Predict the structure.
Amino acid sequence: MMHTADLLKVFAEHRGDSIVISGRGGKHWIGISDTVLDVPLGDPAMGGHSGFGLGLALAQPNKRVILFDSEGDILMSMGQLATIAEQAPVNFYHFILDNEVYATTGGQPVPNAKHVDYAMIAKGAGFPRAFNFDELDAFSKELPGILKAPGPVFVALKVWPEVENTPIGQRVRWRKRGADKVVRDLRGALAVG
Amino acid sequence: MADAGALSPETVMRQMKQNGVTDIVWLPDSETNWLFLLMEADPDLRLVGVTREGHACSIAAGLFAGGRKPMMLIQNTGMMESGDSIRGWLMGLKVPIVLMVGYRGYTRHGVNTDTAATYTERFLMAFGIPFYLVENDADSDRISTAFKEAEQIQGPVVVLVGDEYHGFNR
């Protein structure tokens, strides 16, 4: 198991000028980077981040698009993997943070939490490359090569759950921009809007 | 060619081109098979097939964020199943987009035996999504109207295709 904050720090060293959809790693990533190429959307509707990442990667083929998704989202939208694999954007890098639980609702386990092989599922859906990591050292060693090779690539990362049990209204709101503002800022940075 | 009282796929393609559509995010339905053949033959149009209609919303949002002009092509059954994705990814992110929605079960006289039709307009009214009904080629200007309105409101606008038995499925 890894800590999300630790693996994001490792990733940050290799980020370059990629667009980063921080997804389920958002509250840690915003402390590392919060530029117009960082896309913290919160949770517009669960299961959709992979589609957003795909669409953005297709629209911007010359930009590397990195997504930090989750296993709960993937379980909700497994069919997206087939769509991503069919479109096969070479600039799309799909990471998932697998904490085995629904952390924001109190830590209830996702179905078959400890026995789902997400990399195998991604490969079965047609991803040319897919990996599982559960140790930071191995992830740190392999990450540069993963990012240098063409996508689409799928990387499942086992992370410690950070369970939230306080009522939603009492939780610290870490996002500084609304999701629609984030999209407008990105479009401005890409000179498309 | 389809009969004069139908909505022809060529007309819909013309509307897409006039309004600068670059990508079609879609899931096949009984109204759109012939349109698919036309779209597939167009090298300037990218087709992104999905396995569930709600997925189309976030893909379209990502395409918009990256500067493309997507359109969604789904059926009313799938639209209703996609409620939270329409809310979160299209309305929440203020994505100006037209959804062409096959109006399964639609009958002009309002008496139908398919609950897909019964709840379609109620669903759209509950979400506050503007919509236009297109039944034949003479109605096709409403598609352009929908594109203009989507830009004005910075959100989704629906075109209901009430032509289940004619031109789209010849």
Observations:
- The longest strand of chain A covers residues 92-98.
- The helical segments of chain A are 4-12, 26-29, 49-59, 71-76, 79-87, 118-125, 136-148, 179-189.
